[in-house]
Specification:
With 328 residues, this protein is α/β, with parallel strands linked by helices. The protein has ten helices and twelve strands. The chain has two domains: 149 residues, Nucleotidyltransferase, domain 5; 158 residues, Nucleotidyltransferase, domain 5 (2-Layer Sandwich). A five-stranded mixed beta sheet has the order 3-2-1-4-5, with helices on both faces. It has a five-stranded mixed beta sheet with strand order 8-7-6-11-12, sandwiched between helices. Bound molecules: adenosine-5'-triphosphate and fe (ii) ion (FE2).
Length: 328
């Protein structure tokens, strides 16, 4: 079976082609980068409308797959920015009708989790999904992914992006902030905000800007922000492991590209006798392959829909969609 998946929830338009053995045959991605400031949904959607047809062609070409060989078309139904979601869904509906193939809606967060899980080879790990808009500790139970802990304000990636822009940088902020943090020497005090299995980042944001206002070096701010924020994520993941009696952790989402976060989670998990895994960066950030792979799981579970029932859902939560393809 070969599935084509379309991602367009936020800044990234991407088309992936994946087989039932989770081989990524083709992946074509184009990220909208605003010249200044954050993302305007309408501008990002216009970008996606422009680039998606070419990305479909490029993904098919690299995969060396003809349209007639595609068995189904999957798309990200939510959560995300309405205009961006609709751009991807429209392309997916069109391909499904023209190629006469099933249309499969996929939850973007579940897709981050499923691509990471299949690549890890682990059956039932604890999942730390750390991305732009979301930050959740997740475990599967009774046909659904359950959110055990999450951010109480903004996603860790959006927090890093916002902070980096406020410190004079451009979007996205996570990768340059990681580089800058490597030059950091001094740990500055920042609010450590863990509430049970939840976290919050707005206090660190305010305190970081206050440090900047007092003339702190940007590498020191970056080092302190990474150390504090990722310690918080590692702590809530460890708490979830202890409560749910699991050993291993799989990381997903764009912030899971970060070496410091990977290292901190690895040290914690190995200290408890388990293992941790994170996908290669191209499959941590938004990508069409994760949508295609999760679409394949959903299709096998009978979750395709007619076009008229394929509306996007900008607020669709991880724990509100069924994931019945898992045994547990
Ligand atoms: P969501 O999945 O919640 O809808 P998203 O789709 O916007 O969010 P992803 O593409 O999964 O997010 O991740 C993008 C985020 O990852 C950005 O905020 C970016 O700054 C962050 N990111 C990417 N690389 C790194 C890195 N090396 N270190 C820290 N953050 C990173
Ligand atoms: Fe994402």
């Amino acid at each position: 079976m070969v599935i084509l998946g379309i991602e367009s929830t936020a800044h990234t338009a991407s088309v992936g082609i994946v087989t039932e053995r989770a081989e990524v045959l083709g992946l074509a991605t184009d990220m909208f980068r605003p010249v200044r400031g954050g993302i305007h949904p309408r501008e990002a959607a216009n970008h996606h409308v422009e680039v998606l047809p070419g990305l479909v062609r490029r993904a098919l070409d690299t995969a060396r797959v003809r349209p007639t060989e595609i068995d189904a078309v999957a798309f990200a139904q939510g959560p995300g920015l309405g205009p961006c979601l609709r751009a991807g869904a429209t392309v997916a509906r069109t391909l499904s009708l023209v190629w006469n193939r099933p249309l499969v809606p996929v939850n973007h967060c579940v897709a981050h989790v499923e691509i990471a899980r299949v690549l890890s080879g682990m059956d039932d790990p604890m999942l730390l999904y750390a991305s732009g808009g979301n930050t959740q500790v997740i475990a599967h139970h009774s046909g659904r992914y359950r959110v055990l802990g999450e951010t109480l304000d903004i996603g860790v990636g959006n927090f890093l992006d916002k902070l980096w822009i406020a410190l004079g940088g451009t979007f996205p902020g996570g990768p340059p902030l990681e580089k800058e943090a490597r030059q950091g020497e001094e740990l500055l005090p920042l609010p450590y905000s863990v509430h049970g299995m939840d976290v919050a980042f707005s206090g660190i944001y305010t305190a970081s800007l206050a440090h900047a206002g007092r003339g702190a070096r940007r590498p020191d701010i970056a080092l302190s922000v990474e150390s504090t924020a990722y310690s918080m994520l590692t702590e809530i993941t460890e708490r979830a492991l202890a409560h749910r009696r699991r050993e291993s952790v799989v990381l997903g989402g764009g912030v899971a590209c970060n070496e410091r976060l990977r290292g901190m989670v690895r040290a914690m998990v190995e200290g408890r006798g388990g293992t941790s895994f994170a996908p290669p960066p191209s499959l941590c950030v938004d990508n069409g392959a994760m949508i295609a792979w999760t679409g394949l799981l959903a299709l096998r579970a009978g979750l395709s829909v007619p076009v008229k029932a394929s509306a996007v859902d900008p607020r669709q939560r991880t724990d509100l969609v069924p994931a019945p393809w898992r045994r547990l």
